[in-house]
Amino acid sequence: MCDPVTNLSKYTLTDSEHNALINGLDHVYPPEKLDQPQFVCNMEYFYARLLNVRTAYRHYEQKSATEVVRHQLTSLQLSAASELRETANSFRKVAESELKKIGVEHRKTFSTLRSLTKNKSIIVTRPDKGRGVVIMDREDYVKKMNKILDDRSAFTLINYDPTLDNENELIRFLLVLKKEGFISDQEFKLSCPTGSRPARIYGVPKLHKKGEDYPLRPVMSATKTVAYGL
Hints:
There is one protein chain. By secondary structure, this protein is mostly helical. It is 44% helix and 10% strand. It has helices spanning 15-21, 36-51, 75-117, 138-149, 163-179, 185-191; strands spanning 5-7, 122-125, 133-137, 200-205, 216-221. The chain has a 3-stranded mixed beta sheet with strand order 1-3-2. A two-stranded antiparallel sheet has the order 4-5. α1 crosses α3 (75-117). It starts with a strand and ends in a 9-residue tail after the last strand.
């Protein structure tokens, strides 16, 4: 099986560091505690669907928090509900125990990952294609990014940040559109920029180009830019 962790740096990963990275950068760890209110709600909803029990409310309506909804169940249905409750309680106890055990292991992993983030000599990123994790020397990463940014056919060096000016200009334009009825108040709120920032650029290594010393593919992140809401 192909190793999802590619180390291009001079830094040697320990086994614990490698194991912490092997799940990838998008891996989501389960919580250490069972969400009991949500679990109870899910079980009640599950049983109600089994019996096809419905309230008089439509899906978009909400009942008062103090209102109690009662259903008339047969003795057989009540017996089944009792068995389901016992099964759910057994599952809950096992789940809580297992989550605690898993939580201990995950805390070790989190500690290892935090330690890696404090290592300023390396960059932990993702490859250009596919899934995985790539470790690069920070010095090498910065050198390759500077080479990309030095391309004056693609990038121009400016002496000021025009973000605020662009934001104000867009707001004025959106106000005109709203005043003339081209957009609604809701559309104006969704598209109106506040606290904008310049776009961020970063690079991801092209692992399939080993012969070219793994060049970087530039990626522009437009999150929270002036036109992000458009």
